[in-house]
Structures are given as structure tokens and as C-alpha cells.
Amino acid sequence: MAETHGLVIVNTGNGKGKTTAALGMGFRAWGQGLRVLVIQFIKGNWKYGELKAAEKLAPDFVIRQMGEGFVKHVKSDGTADHQGAAAEALQMARDEITSGKWDMIILDEINYAVKFGLVTVGECLELISLKPAGMHLVMTGRDAREEVIDRADLVTEMREIKHPYKQGIKAQKGVEF
Amino acid sequence: MAETHGLVIVNTGNGKGKTTAALGMGFRAWGQGLRVLVIQFIKGNWKYGELKAAEKLAPDFVIRQMGEGFVKHVKSDGTADHQGAAAEALQMARDEITSGKWDMIILDEINYAVKFGLVTVGECLELISLKPAGMHLVMTGRDAREEVIDRADLVTEMREIKHPYKQGIKAQKGVEF
Questions:
Q1: Interval A102-155: pLDDT, tens
Q2: Adjacent-strand bridge partners of B107
Q3: Residues of chain A contacting B65 with CB distance shorter than 8 Å
Q4: With contact defined as beta carbons under 8 Å apart, do B127 and B137 qualify?
Q5: Which end of chain B, N or C, is surrounded by fewer C-beta atoms within 10 Å?
Q6: Which chain A residues are Cβ-neighbours of B56 within 8 angstroms?
Q7: Does the domain at residues B8-158 carry the CATH identifier 3.40.50.300?
Q8: Which residues contact A124 (CB under 8 A, 6 or more apart)?
Q9: How close, in Å, is residue A78 to chain B by CA atoms?
């Protein structure tokens, strides 16, 4: 067995903290000298706090935003081309996983992309099989498929116990976005 | 209601990701210009990846390590004085919460400290009551008490679905520590 056994990690469930825990893991890994890439499969080109923070940790902590934020992924009727954006994210994931440039890759919301038919479960399993032995691969998003969980080393379900939106409190800058 | 409604956030459960999600939240909040303090209630003075990463974000992202890492918290028989360390962490929490210096304070493993009788649930509730309206207070650790959950706005349970230790894989640098 190699010195570093790269883990396949899945954060799933209906609660908060799936992406946030992955970011925290990336932050910690970066502190240990690992090179960390985040590829977003769903979220658009918003000004997340994490983007600003990631800039400070560049070039060894990089967040690549995919999804509807990309201008070219707009259909002729003007709506967002989620399918095209997901396909591009998927190809980027393949390329980066096999590039040798990263010690940890976080595929953010890929489970959600599978749920919505933008990525197939077979494509997810292909990404896992492409993973070099020493690389950590983190997959987030609710409703992770059983086939993916079967291949993972560490799986955590984030369960919502209580949520402020349901109590009439608005999303808070720095916490929710 | 003020522009910013500071949330009381609890990450609990038996799974991974409670502290990690809190760190990710701190990372994101910092990116939004918030000043973030982490106070550890249990862990010792280890060289966590997050400490190295936090240094990059100083002075507005600070991790204060408490617990057995402090030399003065050793009992006469040479064992760690967990009680003394927790009392010091608690007093630091009181002082920092009321200092006006922070927009988010993460009380890491405080629920665990309560579980082990190092901090009382009444002291936890006191910290919540001291919180300025605009400050976010994050409390992590398994077995959060019902009284604390009642006072929280956002509560997430991290449930372990699968863990690599149980499959004979050692803790991995950058992921587990």
C-alpha cells in the first residue's frame, strides 16, 4: 500500500454543511501542503465568500465554477443549458483527475447533478476509477446514489434538524452564501 | 430587526464534518469580510492543517487552541487537567463573545465538553445569551444537548454512514488531521 491512500469521500443528505464541510476539508488539506481543486457542478457564477477566500490560497487552492454562470451554456430560447454546463464540468473533472496536478479534487454537487439527470451514475463511477491512488476525491450533494456510496471510503449524511428559513429568518451573508 | 441577524448554529451527530463544516463556514464568512474566531474546547496543540491555513487569513481568522495542549493545565500527578483547560476556554469564550471584535465565533467541540462534564449546559446557554445580535455563534460536537438545540437557529446532524477506519485504512494527512 502506498504511503498516502487517497480516499473517496461522499457528503450527502438533506442538511447544510455538505459543501461547507468539503471546503473545510480543502482548507485543512491545503494547510498540510496538498493541492486542492474544487469543481462546481451546479452553482452559478455567484460571488461566494469562498471564492474570495480561495484567492488568498491560490495557486494551490482553486475553485472552478461551472453551471449556468457560463455564457456559452445558454440555449437558443435564452434559458440556462444545465446539460451543457454539466458535460463541460464532467470533462474538466476527467482532465483534472488525470492531470497529476492535484492531491484533492472536490466535485461539488455532483450527486445533485446525477439526481437531475445531468450526469449519469456511470460517469460518476468512471471518475472514481480514474482517480490516482494517492488522490482524495470528494463528492458532495444530496441523494448520493448507492453505487457511489458503495465505492466510497468515507460517507457522511448531513441531516437537517432545524433550519432558520423555516423560522422566517433570511439567508445571512457570510453564512449561507 | 437588524440588517444582520446573527445565527446560533449547531453541528452535531456521530459523523465526520462537524468541525470541518464549521471551518468551511468560517472560511466562507472570512471571504465575505467577517472576522472569525475559533476556540477549541477539546483538541490539543496539534499541527492541524487548519492552523497553517488560518495563518494565511490572519488577523481576521484566528484559531485559539485550548485543552490539553497548554502546559499549565497539567495536574500534580502529571495527567492533563481537562477541567482547567475547559474553564479557561469558557472564560475566553465569554470575553471574546462580548469583545465586539468578532462577527463569527466557532466554539469547537463545546458540545463534547458538555457531554464530558467539563462545561455545563447552563454555561453553554449563558454564552448564547451573551451573543451580540449581529454575531454568528457556531457550536460543534456530538450529542448536543436538547436545551442548546432549542436555542439554535440552524442545527445539522452529521451521521456516519461509512468510515475508512472500520475498513482498515489509516488516518490520512490533510483529511483527518
A1: 999 999 999 999 999 999 999 999 999 999 999 999 999 999 999 999 999 999
A2: B39, B139
A3: none
A4: yes
A5: N
A6: 56-57
A7: yes
A8: A110, A111, A114, A139, A145, A147, A148
A9: 31
